[in-house]
Design goal:
Elements (H helix, E strand, L loop, with lengths): L1 H29 L2 H6 L13 E2 L5 E7 L4 E7 L6 E7 L10 E9 L13 E4 L5 E7 L17 E11 L8 E9 L41 H7 L22 H24 L13
């Protein structure tokens, strides 16, 4: 009976550990789902400095012309594996003059092109196709990297969507684009140690919609950002910091497996002791033949 009580207590500890790990994840997945849907951007930037910020999990849309460069930017923290998917609604085939190749590129905060670990970043659409989908899944974002490496690091990630090959007569035809970025956690099994400042470029006033006055503030010698910093104001960056911060934090699913391993070790110890201990009979001293 004592062994059964020990087994029950260990299983209870394991269940509590799993519930503790699952509760925050469930809460994060449900809070503000409707708000993201309502506040999703409906336009795209035309270069890196005017890229439209999108939040992971929301679908941004934009109406543009064939040949335009469309830019979005989203945050990714250490331990996550960013994935971007874009769908383009194309004009009717009767108004087009041939096939076209659409391409999705992802850049980090230093504007270094990041290779796709999986997905189809470039796809050719035939003249009769009404839509085309391109996607790119990056490698896991790391918390540190060697100077010579091109590893994805925590910070801003830019998405560029454009056509790279089409008949000249089709330039300017209207298109509708929809882009969605997701940043699932790779898990504690892939966690690494280290710390590096997020690659989150500072935006000067006038370089992005809603950040300041006009192009005049871009003149040489402009110190508007420096003066804002001296006054204690916040300096605008390409993307806002994620709610959980840029780093992966102290919590990891490794803690869950550590607790489970400890419980299993305790069970193995109790079971082994139960199997090898000497049987005791009522009224007879231990070890008496």
């Amino acid at each position: 009976m004592r062994a059964l009580r020990t087994v029950g207590a260990a299983l209870t500890l394991c269940a509590a550990a799993w519930l503790t790990a699952a509760a925050p994840a469930a809460a994060d997945g449900t809070d503000g789902a409707d708000d993201k849907k309502d506040s999703a951007p409906t336009e795209a930037g035309t270069n890196f400095r005017t890229a439209t910020e999108i939040k992971p999990g929301e679908k941004a849309t934009a109406a543009a012309s064939t040949g335009d460069y469309l830019y979005w930017v989203f945050p990714a923290a250490a331990g996550q594996t960013p994935k971007v998917e874009a769908e383009l609604k194309l004009p009717d085939g009767s108004s087009r003059h041939g096939s076209a190749t659409w391409q999705l590129d992802v850049y980090d905060g230093l504007r270094r092109h990041q290779a796709c670990a999986s997905g189809t970043p470039a796809r050719r659409a035939a003249q009769q196709d009404r839509s085309v989908t391109v996607s790119c899944t990056l490698r896991q974002v790391r918390s540190w990297s060697e100077r010579w490496a091109n590893d994805p690091l925590q910070g801003a990630y830019y998405v560029r969507l454009t056509v790279v090959d089409l008949p000249a007569e089709d330039l300017g035809l209207p298109i509708d684009a929809a882009v969605e970025a997701s940043v699932p956690d790779a898990g504690g099994a892939h966690a690494d140690g280290g710390d590096v400042s997020p690659l989150n470029p500072v935006l000067r006033s006038g370089t992005a919609p809603g950040t300041g006055s006009g192009a005049d503030s871009e003149a040489p010698g402009d110190t508007s950002s420096d003066s804002a910093d001296d006054k204690g104001g916040e300096i605008p960056h390409a993307v806002a910091e994620p709610e959980d911060g840029w780093g992966s934090g102290w919590w990891s699913d490794r803690w869950v497996w550590t607790v489970i391993g400890a419980a299993l070790a305790a069970l193995a110890g109790v079971g082994g002791y139960t199997l090898i201990r000497e049987p005791r009979f009522p009224g007879r001293p231990p070890g008496d033949a």
